[in-house]
Amino acid sequence: MNGVILRWPVPIGTTINAQYYKKVLQDKLRPAIRKKRPGLLESGILFHHDNAPVHKAQAVTDVLAGFKWELLEHPRYSPDLAPCDFHLFPHMKEHLRGQRFETEEDITQATKVAIKNVDKCSYVHAIKDWLQRIEKCGNNGGCYVE
């Protein structure tokens, strides 16, 4: 709710598999949490990611269990319930619309600026909106329609 903790551009040609995701969690996300939100790792993490196969892989669930993070369930067949999809990405698209990029570095810098331009207060609204969407999905027998 306090904004983006980690912005990690995946190198071109990289296959996102369980081992890659596990490494990002261990080597990038966890240190970023320690740096940007001191004390949060000790007080407890509520962690949410969608139910993509790479997120459900044993290697990933093992590393998250080792972190002792509490995992929030994601409804089956509802990839559109990820807060990035309905909150962060639309804000970034507004900022990036109409631009052309010459290099990968140009894209990386532009997305960094776009993320910084997202109003910090909007993250609280996004989480509340997400909770309402999750509740709507639960009330609709596990299906989500917006």
UniProtKB/TrEMBL annotation:
<dbReference type="InterPro" id="IPR036397">
    <property type="entry name" value="RNaseH_sf"/>
</dbReference>
<protein>
    <submittedName>
        <fullName>Mariner Mos1 transposase</fullName>
    </submittedName>
</protein>
<dbReference type="InterPro" id="IPR038717">
    <property type="entry name" value="Tc1-like_DDE_dom"/>
</dbReference>
<dbReference type="InterPro" id="IPR052709">
    <property type="entry name" value="Transposase-MT_Hybrid"/>
</dbReference>
<dbReference type="GO" id="GO:0003676">
    <property type="term" value="F:nucleic acid binding"/>
</dbReference>
<feature type="domain" description="Tc1-like transposase DDE">
    <location>
        <begin position="14"/>
        <end position="107"/>
    </location>
</feature>
<dbReference type="Pfam" id="PF13358">
    <property type="entry name" value="DDE_3"/>
</dbReference>
